[in-house]
Amino acid sequence: MTLNKYVALAAKSFALPEVCIRIRAVLDDPRSSAEDLGALISVDPSLTAKVLRLANSALFRFPSQVESISKAISVIGGEALYNLVVAETANSAFKSFNTPHIDLDKHWYQAVYCGMVAKCLARHLGIRGSERFFVMGILQNLSELVVAKHSSDLYKIYQDDKVCELPYVRQIRHFGFTFSECSGTILENWKLPLVLYYPVMNANDPTKQDADTDIGILALASRITAMQHNKECYGEIELFSKEIANSVSADMDAISNAITFADIETTKVAMLIH
After folding, report:
1. Counting Cβ atoms within 10 Å, is residue 246 exposed (0-12), middle (13-18) or buried (19+)?
2. Is the terminal CB of the chain with fewer CB neighbours within 10 Å at N or C?
């Protein structure tokens, strides 16, 4: 099955909720205000509760209690709020693609871990809007669930392949594309912003890793996640390829800090969203 067929199947199985589209429209409208954004969130009690819990979580470390959506918006910003709503949406998407071949809790935990590592690295490098890396990390392997659900026999062969090569190399060998490339195309189909889908789509492209820091960070976070969660196979993985090293100015202290941050915070944040 081709990449585009999996993208089409994902579109049929799960549609981006209207609230995501409306929030994006408000953010892109120069005439809109924080009050307009707050009004959209506030009509959904469940989403309101989750946004407030996230605003008060270790993810943002605000020194005092955030008790209202308007304050949450002022604390974390409209774009960060949008990213959190997309992260919550990802949780629903994961469940809609549930398959017996994948432990959904483990998959979700590793996705959040990747997002936390990417966010920490982006902060270390002083990149504006570092919250978006959290969302990109969560969504990077969304398509793995789509592939496993709709091509279970082929996915089982991939799953049973114990060759310890980089995950994206195995994916290309078995499917002809990487899960990240397919996930990015799904996100583009959902009409998410370019700054979210483009790095995901190109995370495993060495040429793009070399030229784009966002892509380099996401690629590095993916390698760190693989190393930490499958030490038997990836314990000695090369974190800094030549291309990643050219775009990401981080040393091993930064890597160690990102791992510590993700180890501590992932369980907390996963519990808030999941």
Report:
1. middle
2. N
HSE toward the beta carbon, residue 204, CA cutoff 13 A: 19
pTM for the whole structure: 0.84
pLDDT digits (tens, 9 = 90+) for 111-145: 989 999 999 999 999 998 888 898 899 999 999 99
Q: Which of 69, 85, 95 minimizes the C-alpha distance to 21?
A: 85
- CA–CA dist 102, 144 (Å, integer): 9
Q: Are 203 and 180 within 8 A, CB to CB?
A: yes
Residue 193 dihedral angles phi and psi, to the nearest 5°: -60, 150
Cβ neighbors of 254 (< 8 A, separation 6 or more) are: 121, 124
Q: How many alpha carbons lie under 13 Å from residue 40 in its C-beta half-sphere? A: 21
Task: For residue 137, give its domain range.
Answer: 3-273
The CATH number of whichever domain residue 28 belongs to comes to 1.10.3210.10
